[in-house]
Amino acid sequence: MMHVHMAAWALLAEGGPHNSGPDFGKASPFGLLVVVLLLIGVLFLVRSMNRHLKKLPESFDPQHPEPDQAVDDGTIDQPPHEPRP
After folding, report:
1. What are the pLDDT digits (tens) for 48-84?
2. Contact (Cβ atoms closer than 8 angstroms) between residue 52 and residue 58
3. Residue 22's pLDDT is what?
4. Would you tell me how many other CB atoms lie within 10 Å of the CB of residue 29?
5. DSSP sequence for 40-51
6. pLDDT tens-place string over residues 3-25
7. Where are the alpha helices (H) located in the chain, listed in sequence order?
8. Any idea what DSSP says for residue 18?
9. What span, in angstroms and rounded, lies between the C-alpha atoms of 46 and 39?
10. Whole-model pTM?
11. Is 70 within 8 Å of 64 (Cβ atoms)?
12. What is the chain's alpha carbon radius of gyration, rounded to the nearest angstrom?
């Protein structure tokens, strides 16, 4: 049984790499196309994000905080939550 394993390992070791031509390991033009398409996608996402950010107000502070203040004042008188056992 041990000889079969050794023979299999020897057979596998003799094979070597099959793709060892002059172009082996070089990138293809398809890889460049994928990278360029990803960069174009990121460019469009950044432009879209900038347009959405320009629509936001300078500050989120309300000009009339009375309704919010009434809710805040109402929550102060509530008893604290009981701790979990």
Report:
1. 999 999 998 887 776 766 666 665 655 555 555 666 6
2. no
3. 74
4. 7
5. HHHHHHHHHHHH
6. 787 777 777 777 666 666 777 77
7. 2-15, 29-54, 66-76
8. S
9. 11
10. 0.45
11. no
12. 34
* CA 48 vs CA 15, 27, 42, 44: distances in Å: 53, 32, 10, 6
Residues 6 or more apart whose CB falls under 8 angstroms from that of 62 comprise 68
Q: Which residue do the tokens 């049984």 mark?
A: 1
What's the one-letter identity of residue 78?
Answer: Q
Fill in the amino acid letter for 61. D
| Residue with the two structure tokens 């004042």 | 73
d(CA 21, CA 27): 14
Report CA-CA distances (Å) from 2 to 6, 9, 11, 15: 6, 11, 14, 21
